[in-house]
Amino acid sequence: MSGKSNKDSILIVDDSEATLEVLQRNLAAEGYQTFTAPTVAAAVSLLETTPVDLVVTDFKMPGGSGMDLVRHIRENLRDTEVMMITGYPSIEGAVEAVKVGAEEYLSKPFTDEELYAAVRRALDKLQLRRSGRAAETQTPTFSHGMMGESKAMRDIQGDIAKAASTTATVLVTGESGTGKELAARAIHYGSARASDPFVPVNCGGIPDSLLESELFGHVKGAFTGAAESRAGFFHAADGGTIFLDEVSETSAPMQVKLLRVLQEKEVYMVGSNRARKVDVRILAATNKDLWALVKKGVFRKDLFYRLNVITIALPPLRERDHDIILLATHFAQRFAEEFGRPHPRFSSQAISVLRNYDWPGNVRELENVVQRLVLMTEGDIIDVPDLPPLMRFSALRGEGLHRTLAEVEYEHINNVLASVNNNKTRAAAILGIDRKTLRQKLRRTPGQSDPPNTTT
Ligand SMILES: Nc1ncnc2c1ncn2[C@@H]1O[C@H](COP(=O)(O)OP(=O)(O)OP(=O)(O)O)[C@@H](O)[C@H]1O
Ligand SMILES: [Mg+2]
Do 1-138 and 143-315 have matching folds? Predict the structure, then answer.
């Protein structure tokens, strides 16, 4: 955080006025203090007088590229993170950016959510560096922002530590949003390679025709448009770790090439038949049942075994009962700080709904729900009516078998009331009773039998 304010500050550097404006508006709306500079030179001179936490820079700019800026920052400013934005489909620049010290990169086009997530990751890293290792061990946070106190997550913590102490290939599995990328980062940053690059590659997001040259690079003239030789992600990750996300989405020919890298530890740039040695640790992730894909013949068995030397299987959130509230509270505090709002608390009924919901989108869904709650809830208590309706109703389904009719009725009435903003006339109409009956039912607490002298 910068000295003057407790907001994280971000300098945005881009030669396009329109882009500057959009990024500034979005990041300011997220609660960051923002500065802009249209050129590298302007950015450098602003940084001389104004310390910022994060610089988000475009790659290609006339009169000095984003790369020069990354270099300048890495050489001169210890306390500033850098994130590079690169063009699509050429991921050109990302590779070099990581090499010279950008902590994060984002390829165009990206969604607002991807921007916010990358910014948050970069700032989290900065925070972690500043607070030093000692603080890490005091909180239930372990390994790079990965939290959890459930038995399952404590086991995972042990697995991550073990994996970090080796150079073995690791396959991280788990449903969407369970924290696979976070686990991969924890392995890398807990390993001896921590000061070398961590390079995530979304194999499912890059068209197959491009993936090979993105991963392995290409030589000049390898294909139409290859005017110059260019290094690939494997070169960028040299000495460090490559994270092959959604590895199940690779084509059969690509799987053969990956197998070769794993066996020979060398890569062939597209258009070249000269092998180049690389020292890259491979981590892979999938939300599919990879073994089922092997049995179906769409994923190579030999590659499966090579990737699966160590498996880290992240449990779905619904199976980590203890962590739901821990994470909800953690996210609530984080977003409250980010948005400058009071720290909210969850009512005990709200907690019970959160615990009974089945979280198909896992931790990411919880994070999104809590973010919305922090923004939308008036006051500092989050109660059942504040929760998304879908969640209130599905929680009811989960609990249904253990509750009395009176409890179910009471809760149903309250849910209906919440859905019509407490309008008793409308609620009574929906419930098929008159307003007087509704009032009487509301006076009763669940579990109590009917008061003796009421007429229903
Ligand atoms: N144990 C955890 N503690 C704190 N935050 C977590 C934890 N697990 C996941 N998160 C957060 O949840 C979000 C999703 O995590 P991540 O991107 O690692 O999941 P994923 O399994 O890679 O998801 P997908 O399959 O959709 O790519 C991230 O914002 C991450 O920081
Ligand atoms: Mg992921």
Answer: yes
